[in-house]
Structures are given as structure tokens and as C-alpha cells.
Design a protein that fits this description.
By secondary structure, this protein is α+β, with helices and mostly antiparallel strands. It is about 10% helix and about 15% strand.
């Protein structure tokens, strides 16, 4: 029975050996097996020809020295790994299939609108003023056809929960008085320039303590713009069954391109299980004890039930600074 290259190559690296010694031994063994017909190498794959040799072309012995006694250098000739890299789709520039797929649906006047909107007040026990038969999706999103297609965050909370994040909270920049509902902006300027003077912060949590260093110690931000330790942020993960899930184009900006990338997959009769938004509120601290490595794939859900379990689930709509109690979103009903 012939050995396949993929199964045999696992045995080539020996613990305690130098890289040069391993590569030299691999070269000799693979070359011998190939000549004896005991190694099956796919003809479509360029054979990995590793060799550790000195300037005179001598093969290395097991010590990593050449047989002539000179120190060696490692070279790699015609490697199938390099060929695979050249042919990999990760190295090809391909058009974004989601770009421009947004379906624009104009807002409508709320006076004559009967479909649900995103509720601002999610305090436990609060009852909104619109009764609608739509039912939200209550299972974990990963159990659905949806995948996250965008991650974004608000300065302060967009929603309101008494004694959790409300006008009684605090932060390094203070808090908001109780404003009119649904009139705040994303944490960026309307014209997407570097001027953030018009950013309206939302509500703050009750955790901030200016006497505690973890709320005030500066952090060297590498990737996030205009973030501040001690502030409250509400993070949103938009999910869609119409996203380009599992590909390099899964995450999109603007997020509506991600929702409608594969619009033909969306079933409007069960839209609450096709499009949904997760939200989670954080107070940012500079303390490694609170480090969490991945906020791209969805909200934090812990097995001890502390995070991601006691949540408000409802049917609503997309939000944004253009929506109010007068102008309602037509992207509804979603979870």
C-alpha cells in the first residue's frame, strides 16, 4: 500500500532536532520513498523539495552540519506550499458581491404605521403602546440560518433600562438627562469625517468610579477610534440569513449590504427568524481581569448565566438617527 504525502509528512518532524536536520532528513526520506514507488504524490501538486545544504551543495548530516563540516543554510525548492499560496483565493482580489445590494425602503409616518418599531425602553415590566402579532426569534442566533454581518457600537446606550443604564448612570463625560426617545446618533459624525463634535451620547451604566484606576487609566487604542476608558458603549451585532455567511464577505459596511447580500434567501413570512440584532452594554475598563478575546461573532454568553441570559427579546426594527416617533423604519419586523 502506498503512503499518501499528506499522511506521511506528519511523521517527518522529530522533537529535539534542528529545523535543518528535520528538513534534510525529510528530503532524503521522501526522495527515497518516491524513487521506490512507496509514496503517492498527486501529479497535480508540485512536490515539496526541501534541502539543507551549504554553498557547495553538500547534504547535511543529522547534526545540521554539512558532510564537509561547514555550517549550512536551509533552502526550499519548488514547494507545493508556495504554489498553493499563489493559487489560494485568499490572495486573489475579487469583487465584493454584497456591495450595493442594499434595498432602500423609505421611512413612513408613524401615525398610520402598524408594524413594530425598536423599543427604546426595555426596563423589565415595561409595556409598549403598540400591540402586534409578530413573534420574535427566541432561540440562540447560532441555531438559526442567520450569521453576524456587522458589528457597531453606540456611545452611551441607545436603549433605556431603569437602574441599569439610565439618566442616573455616570462616566468620564457625565450623562444625559432623559431625552426624547430615539433621537441619538451613532458614535460618528453624520458626514463620516474626523469631527465628532455632533455625537450625542446615550445613557450610562452605574459602574463608573473615578476613584478606581481601572475606570480612569488611559489605554493605547490600536484599532478603535475615539474610545475612552470608563465610558459606556452599547454594541450591536446585526445578523441576517441573507448574509454572505462563512465567506470573507460576511461582514459588511453599510450593514444593510450585509442584510441583503443574498436577498433571495430571505423569507418575508418569517422575517423575525431571518434578520435579528443582538445588543449588549459595556462599561470599558483598563483591567486585564475583564479581558474578553472576541467581540466579533456575537454577544458574550457565559455558562454561569451571568452574561447573555436574562435578556429582553422583542420584535422591532432597524434604528438610526433618521427615525423618531414621527418617522418610523420600514425595515420591520425583525428580532
Amino acid at each position: 500500500m502506498k503512503l499518501s504525502y499528506a499522511s506521511y509528512v506528519i511523521t517527518l518532524l522529530s522533537p529535539g532536532k534542528t529545523a535543518a536536520s528535520n528538513l534534510s532528513r525529510a528530503h532524503r526520506q521522501l526522495r527515497s520513498l518516491q524513487e521506490d514507488g512507496a509514496l503517492d504524490v498527486d501529479s497535480s501538486m508540485s512536490f515539496a523539495y526541501f534541502s539543507a545544504q551549504d554553498d557547495d551543495g553538500d547534504d547535511d548530516d543529522e547534526s545540521g552540519k554539512s558532510k564537509s563540516g561547514k555550517s549550512s543554510k536551509t533552502v526550499c525548492r519548488d514547494s507545493f506550499l508556495l504554489d498553493a499560496k499563489a493559487e489560494s483565493s485568499f490572495y486573489e482580489e475579487e469583487p465584493n458581491p454584497c456591495s450595493g445590494t442594499t434595498i432602500n425602503i423609505p421611512d413612513e409616518e408613524c401615525d398610520e404605521y402598524t408594524r413594530p418599531q425598536s423599543g427604546a425602553n426595555i426596563t423589565e415590566g415595561y409595556v409598549g403602546g403598540l400591540d402586534h402579532p409578530s413573534v420574535p426569534y427566541t432561540e440562540p442566533f447560532y441555531q438559526s440560518a442567520m450569521c453576524p454581518i456587522n458589528v457597531r457600537w453606540h456611545l452611551g446606550t441607545e436603549h433605556y433600562s431603569v437602574d441599569e443604564y439610565d439618566e442616573g448612570g455616570d462616566g468620564p463625560n457625565g450623562n444625559q438627562v432623559l431625552p426624547e426617545w430615539a433621537t441619538r446618533d451613532l458614535a460618528e459624525s453624520d458626514d463620516n469625517d474626523d469631527d465628532d463634535e455632533n455625537v450625542r451620547g446615550g445613557f450610562r451604566c452605574h459602574h463608573y468610579d473615578e476613584a478606581d484606576e481601572k475606570f480612569t487609566k488611559e489605554f493605547d487604542w490600536k484599532h478603535c477610534k475615539d474610545m475612552e476608558v470608563g465610558e459606556t458603549y452599547e454594541v450591536h451585532w446585526t445578523h441576517s440569513a441573507g448574509g454572505d455567511c462563512g465567506t470573507v464577505h460576511q461582514y459588511q459596511t453599510p450593514f444593510l449590504d450585509g442584510i441583503f447580500c443574498n436577498a433571495e434567501r430571505l423569507d418575508l413570512t418569517v422575517l423575525t427568524s431571518q434578520v435579528g440584532i443582538q445588543g449588549q452594554v459595556f462599561t470599558v475598563v483598563n483591567d486585564e481581569a475583564y479581558f474578553y478575546p472576541d467581540l466579533m461573532r456575537g454577544m458574550i454568553v457565559t455558562v454561569d448565566g451571568e452574561h447573555g441570559h436574562d435578556v429582553a427579546i422583542y420584535t422591532g426594527s432597524t434604528t438610526g438617527s433618521s427615525r423618531s416617533n414621527e418617522d418610523c423604519s420600514s425595515y420591520t419586523p425583525i428580532t
